[in-house]
Design goal:
Layout lengths: L11 E10 L4 H5 L3 H10 L2 E11 L4 E9 H4 L2 H4 L8 H9 L4 E3 L1 H12 L4 E4 L2 H19 L4 H6 L1
Parallel strand pairs: 1-5, 3-4
Antiparallel strand pairs: 1-2, 2-3
Length: 156
Amino acid sequence: MAKNFYGHGRLAYMVLDTETATLPFADEIAKGDVNKKKKIAIARPLIYDIGYTICFRDGTIIEKKSFLVSEIFSVPSIFNTAYYAGKRPLYIEMLRREEITVLPWNDIMKIFLQDLAKVDAVGAFNAMFDFKKAIPFTELYIKQLYGNGFYEWMEI
């Protein structure tokens, strides 16, 4: 077996998890309809918490990383749409204990892509949602946020 990035000749795996919020006007669009709001949240997820563990098959942990996305977590009107919005005090405590880091999305993605190149396989409890919905929509949102036509895009 060829040596991988970690030099042990064993396969390295990334196990990913994300937590999401949605657009700040989801309540307004849903007009109190809980099911409609859930559909909006699933269709337009914004990642505020992304973390992953890199490990070997036997469970030996190589690296653990946890990030809060500053553009989402730090904006109350967005973060408060999260299913776990009530856990904000827990996140603040994790920040104090340096168990999680707040960074801009683009910085997180740079680190994530570097780490992704080190592993042989990736998994997630809800991989389809994370990789097909949450990461792409958050990427689009951030791209628009830093672009010139953000407010026009949000209106659409």
